[in-house]
Please model this.
Amino acid sequence: MNTNVTPDGVLQITFNDIRAGWEQWILLSSDRHLDSPDSDRVLQRKHLEQARERGAFVLDFGDLFDVMGGRNDRRRTRGGILPQHQQDAYYTAVLDEAVEWLTPYADLFAMIGTGNHESAVLKHGEVDLTRHLVRLLNAEAGANIHAGDYAGWVSLRFNHTGKAGIGRHVIRYTHGSGGSSPVTRGVIQTNRRAVYLPDAHTVVSGHLHEAWLVPITRERVTERGRVYFDEQTHVQIPSYKRSSLRSGFAAERGFAPTPLGAWWLRFWLEGNTIRHEFTRAQ
Model:
């Protein structure tokens, strides 16, 4: 697996020497909220251990940090800050512990993106936690992680033995936007995104702490006039954080319980065709 980043910020991942029996797993994750007392670190560790067993790599799409305990953060509560982070150098403490916790798994991550929790700290505290985290993991663990933006592209390219190209899979990612949508759960976004993202095979997003998959079948035509059908898959990634529904923000807003986990994306070679499928990581 080789990686590079284009001038437009597209992360290109190339798989060479693909032959019979080849497969590749990818863990699509978002909203880890690692420093929150409500973050399920046990489940995260389980999935990262599974990723290692499967030879998978991780694409993470933001809100790895929770960081709502800053001195001037109006969302700050005593119960929302882990004991080890209750110190004057709050952001430093959160960052240092994240590096320590993730170091054993740093080699699994191909990208860590930026979410609204990180962008809020950048806006109000002038600290880019995502890029600091990636820089430290790359330096201290010898990893090769790309610091992703709030939204962007990942292009997967597949080359057969002898370097012959046999396919490409383009992922458009965004951390996500909007608030809680108890009726639509954000599914309405699929039709909008399908219109302005025609080149994406898969469109992934996080932020909403929901889990669903919506395939959209498309009728296409080649330059030579051949009509064919393909499928664009929209994937909503859940969270590893489950807030209390007894008290606090989620309880006061009347939020419903949300699913935990991530998604597995598996590719394999079938004949001369690259196939793929999605399954929930629970």
